[in-house]
């Protein structure tokens, strides 16, 4: 299957982008593996005719919005992120009416419709930097309240209003689960994603995006780590740090939507060129504005 994927990639001038949470075998055949921010930048720079995006819907959508002339395919179009929809109808208008200088800051983990209603997008890698750079005092951070709270703690000069949304995978992790691993591995450092609840972040040694966690594990001198994020990151952690040990909370955090990306589905979309991401042209143009603003402000 891997050979057929390689051959088709060359024949069709296709590039495969995979998120760190995709299964290991998919990361192995990908040309680029990264977090949402890195993959959005790669999608924009790509000169391939076809982009196969191994992630969830909002990632495929973002790639299409940034490359409207390219064919963006997803191995499984039903792979979706529940958090991407967690903003109540009308609440953005209510906030704009309440705060005249409001900036709506939208985590990239959101639908194209939500991006259209926002002033700027962010990812977990650049959210602090971008929020700091905005001239607005009042910020409505959507959809993830955990990332919003983490940003608010770093950017105390702003009034950050939180939304009632979260990643169901990260929000399930508890401080007790971390403590149970800590008991088994007392020397392990706890590395957590900011989508985790405050109680998990409070017992963490390091907090960062998946890309930040990978970079930390590489440069840090410890030998053992308890990883508080989705377990797809394990593939890169182990291949980049063969002499280190990585443990996960029990049950191991696993996003079933990310796991819909398989070698079979990658091969199938490359062969049949099906599962194309289609976005209404007007929606796409409007959603491009906050995405481009993110890429500009994050430079
Ligand atoms: S891990 Fe959470 S934020 Fe990421 S795609 Fe899955 S549900 Fe969405």
Structure write-up:
The chain is α/β, with parallel strands linked by helices and 299 residues long. It has three domains: 100 residues, NadA-like (Rossmann fold, 3-Layer(aba) Sandwich); 84 residues, Rossmann fold (3-Layer(aba) Sandwich), CATH 3.40.50; 76 residues, NadA-like (Rossmann fold), CATH 3.40.50.10800. It is 43% helix and 16% strand. The protein has a four-stranded parallel β-sheet with strand order 2-1-3-4, with helices on both faces. It has a four-stranded parallel β-sheet with strand order 6-5-7-8, sandwiched between helices. It is globular. The model has no long low-confidence stretch (mean pLDDT 96). The structure holds iron/sulfur cluster. Iron/sulfur cluster binds next to helix 9.
The SSE order reads HEHEHEHEHEHEHEHEHHEHEHEHEHH
In whole angstroms, the N-to-C terminal distance is 38 Å
Give the CATH topology of the largest domain: Rossmann fold
Low-confidence stretches: none
Number of domains: 3
Helix content: 40-55%
Largest sheet: 4 strands, parallel
Name the CATH architecture of the largest domain: 3-Layer(aba) Sandwich
Number of strands: 12
| Oligomer classification | single chain
**Percent of sequence in beta strands:** 15-25%
CATH class of the largest domain: Alpha Beta
Bound molecules: iron/sulfur cluster
Average per-residue pLDDT, rounded, comes to 96
Structural class: alpha/beta
As laid out across the biggest beta sheet, the strand order is 2-1-3-4
| CATH homologous group name of the largest domain | NadA-like
- Anisotropy-based shape: globular
Compute the gyration radius: what is it? 19 Å
- Separate helix tally: 15
């Amino acid at each position: 299957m891997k050979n057929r994927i390689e051959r088709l990639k060359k024949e069709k001038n296709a590039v495969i982008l995979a998120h760190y949470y995709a299964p290991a075998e998919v990361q192995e055949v990908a040309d680029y593996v990264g977090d949402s921010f890195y993959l959005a930048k790669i999608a924009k720079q790509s000169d391939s005719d076809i982009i196969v995006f191994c992630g969830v819907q909002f990632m495929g959508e973002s790639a299409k919005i940034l490359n409207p002339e390219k064919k963006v395919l997803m191995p499984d179009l039903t792979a979706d992120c529940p958090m991407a929809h967690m903003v109540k109808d009308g609440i953005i208008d209510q906030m704009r009416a309440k705060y005249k200088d409001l900036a709506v800051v939208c985590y990239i983990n959101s639908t194209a419709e939500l991006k259209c209603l926002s002033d700027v997008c962010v990812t977990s890698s650049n959210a602090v930097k971008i929020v700091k750079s905005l001239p607005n005092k009042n910020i409505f951070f959507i959809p993830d309240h955990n990332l919003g709270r983490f940003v608010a703690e770093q950017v105390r000069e702003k009034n950050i209003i939180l939304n009632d949304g979260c990643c169901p995978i990260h929000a399930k992790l508890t401080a007790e689960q971390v403590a149970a691993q800590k008991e088994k591995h007392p020397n392990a450092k706890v590395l957590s994603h900011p989508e985790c609840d405050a109680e998990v972040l409070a017992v963490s040694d390091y907090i960062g995006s998946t890309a930040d966690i990978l970079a930390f594990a590489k440069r840090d001198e410890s030998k053992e780590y308890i990883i508080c994020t989705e377990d797809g990151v394990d593939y890169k952690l182990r291949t980049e740090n063969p002499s280190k040990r990585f443990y996960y909370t029990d049950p191991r955090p696993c996003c079933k939507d990310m796991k819909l990306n398989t070698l079979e589905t990658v091969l199938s979309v490359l062969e049949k060129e099906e599962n194309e991401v289609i976005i209404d042209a007007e929606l796409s143009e409007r959603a491009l504005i906050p995405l481009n603003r993110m890429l500009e402000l994050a430079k």
